[in-house]
Inverse folding.
């Protein structure tokens, strides 16, 4: 049994956001972090590793600089990094990305007792599409929004957190689970983990490595092969500070009515 | 110095850990109660902080002095006292065993110290022997295979929590000064060992300090660490490494003073503009930044010398002297920039001012560092 965790290096939104003229993010000029939900996915995988001793492989698609992120995950306890990197893959939207990552996982070898953990969504695009699309392309079941995961044999019981409640789902391996932040508290790197992380294997798949895979079609990968086109990218104007009305319900209702009336809203 | 990938990652770990785990609530509680917090101690141990410098074969991670300096600096940047939690086992506590302990002693004492289960502390200072550590009056008299210890060690950081204590005692009463002193590892549960009342300190509250009193304590012969009568040089070599850690701590405190001062100077408005607009304030910030940079590079350089097994005595003392004085100056300026608010406990700089004050006193006062530097300089001139 092994676990794949899909991870993405995303801009650190606590820093400055830079946008290129074509409307896409200027990632090179921004500080990066590992996508927060992906950290929960890593922790979920490492918890199962703690119990079973299975191997955990972190998979990412991105520039070679993503190695630093993968090394940090190895310092947390991930056994191996798989970096899918090539100019041909650049600019991919979620459709193309999931196709490439699915090809990468399949090329590495997905076995019947394997699990794939993904973060719910990345904080840069907020699409929540890549995880589920990977599952579709690999023809395996998926359970999204996992707030609890327990494993018994080759069965996983997942509590799906929904807006108005939860749903408990049982699923068999191989499967893909997308994780939310309520699932767990990601661990830190450890001193000994950092000491050993540079000796752990890092596999690089470039275009040539994957080009013969059935999922890799030059017309459906990269910026040109992505069905999504960015029409316009902009920062929404900031809303002004709100106003809190305090007092009894009757007084505040009266005040609210007069404010709305002043603005000719009622 | 530009850090390599491994050290940069360690720095990131220490920074993230401290920023997340050393909550304001925890910091305030430690400062107010002065009590040791086992939960944070255990958590730091879990991630390998206690055994950072202890070799892998004794349960640690065997990292270098640069990693150690980075850890102490980053932890102290958030809370000075919590940097001491991770310091003792890697420095004054574990150091003497690493320098002079037998294989059996290292195997017995170091693994539980590296894992954080046990605490070992260092006892050199006595009521009448501070900077003049050679004036030790604690005695150890051989009796068969055992030694009988009598005396009082003072200002022992961590004594109330300690399982073991490194004790320096006179074993040859005819030898003068620093000669005839031996080093022992004392089981704190032995009959005749008692603790003084916890000291009420100005700062670094949360790591209790008290005296250890020994009255006819019978210590087995295998608790002698290193050679008989040769303990003092081990103490001095241990303090070399200890100084590096305390220099790193001073850099962390100084940086914290600057962080707080910059934040406040940009927020605080007087005469219709942020006070950082006034050169009287911004030049103080610039001086702090320049001095911290200098102190930090001295610390990293001293660490590098030690990592290359080069003579680092002068460099460690120089780093400790400059960093400790820098921390004190930065604390003064940070409080000054905060004005009246800096004198109020609600603001972090009030505690930083108290915490910084110890830097130029413990593990060799600034004046003792000057003695060490001058002696080394003149010896080699």
């Amino acid at each position: 049994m092994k676990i794949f965790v899909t991870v993405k290096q995303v801009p650190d939104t606590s820093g400055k956001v830079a946008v290129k003229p074509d409307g896409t993010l200027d990632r090179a000029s921004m500080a990066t972090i590992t996508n927060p939900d992906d950290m929960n996915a890593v922790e979920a995988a490492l918890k199962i590793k703690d119990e079973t001793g299975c191997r955990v492989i972190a998979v990412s698609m991105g520039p070679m600089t993503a190695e630093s992120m993968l090394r940090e995950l190895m310092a947390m306890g991930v056994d191996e990094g798989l970096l899918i990197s090539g100019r041909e893959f650049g600019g991919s939207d979620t459709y193309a990305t999931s196709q490439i990552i699915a090809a990468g996982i399949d090329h590495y070898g997905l076995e019947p007792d394997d699990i794939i953990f993904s973060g719910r969504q990345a904080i840069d695009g907020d699409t929540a599409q890549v995880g589920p699309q990977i599952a579709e392309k690999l023809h395996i079941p998926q359970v999204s929004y996992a707030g609890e995961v327990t494993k018994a044999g080759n069965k996983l019981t997942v509590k799906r957190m929904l807006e108005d409640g939860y749903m408990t789902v049982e699923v068999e391996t191989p499967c893909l689970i997308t994780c939310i932040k309520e699932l767990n508290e990601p661990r830190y790197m450890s001193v000994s983990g950092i000491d050993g992380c540079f000796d752990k294997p890092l596999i690089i798949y470039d275009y040539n490595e994957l080009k013969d895979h059935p999922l890799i079609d030059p017309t459906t990968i990269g910026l040109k092969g992505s069905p999504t086109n960015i029409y316009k990218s902009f920062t929404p104007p900031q809303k002004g500070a709100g106003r809190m009305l305090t007092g009894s319900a009757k007084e505040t209702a009266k005040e609210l009515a007069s404010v709305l009336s002043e603005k000719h809203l009622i | 110095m530009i850090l390599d990938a491994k050290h940069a990652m360690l720095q990131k770990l220490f920074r993230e850990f401290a920023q997340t785990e050393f909550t304001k609530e925890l910091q305030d509680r430690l400062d107010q109660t002065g009590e040791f917090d086992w939960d944070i101690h255990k958590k730091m141990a879990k991630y390998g902080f206690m055994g950072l410098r202890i070799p892998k074969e004794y349960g640690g991670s065997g990292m270098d002095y640069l990693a150690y300096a980075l850890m102490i600096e980053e932890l102290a940047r958030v809370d000075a006292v919590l940097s001491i939690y991770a310091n003792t086992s890697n420095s004054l506590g574990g150091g003497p065993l690493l320098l002079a302990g037998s294989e059996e002693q290292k195997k017995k004492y170091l693994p539980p110290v590296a894992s954080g289960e046990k605490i070992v502390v260092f006892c050199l200072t006595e009521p009448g022997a501070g900077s003049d550590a050679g004036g030790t009056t604690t005695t150890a008299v051989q009796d068969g295979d055992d030694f009988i210890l009598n005396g009082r060690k003072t200002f022992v950081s961590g004594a109330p929590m300690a399982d073991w204590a490194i004790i320096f005692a006179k074993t040859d009463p005819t030898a003068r000064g620093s000669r005839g002193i031996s080093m022992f590892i004392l089981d704190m549960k032995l009959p005749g060992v008692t603790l003084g009342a916890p000291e009420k300190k100005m700062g670094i509250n949360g790591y209790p300090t008290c005296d250890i009193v020994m009255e006819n304590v019978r210590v087995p012969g295998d608790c002698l660490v290193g050679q008989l009568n040769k303990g003092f040089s081990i103490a001095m070599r241990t303090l070399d490494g200890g100084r590096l850690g305390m220099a790193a701590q001073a850099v962390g405190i100084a940086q914290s003073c600057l962080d707080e001062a910059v934040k406040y100077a940009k927020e605080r408005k007087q005469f219709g503009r942020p006070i950082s607009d006034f050169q009287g304030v911004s030049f103080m910030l610039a001086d702090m930044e320049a001095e911290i940079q200098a102190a930090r590079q001295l610390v990293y350089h001293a660490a590098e010398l030690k990592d290359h097994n080069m003579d680092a005595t002068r460099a460690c003392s120089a780093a400790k002297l400059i960093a400790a004085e820098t921390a004190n100056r930065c604390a003064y300026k940070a409080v000054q920039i905060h004005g009246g608010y800096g004198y109020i406990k609600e603001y972090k700089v009030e505690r930083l001012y108290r915490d910084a004050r110890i830097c130029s006193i413990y593990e060799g006062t600034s004046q003792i560092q000057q003695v060490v530097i001058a002696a080394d300089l003149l010896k080699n001139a």
User: Anything to note?
Assistant: The radius of gyration of chain B is 21 Å.
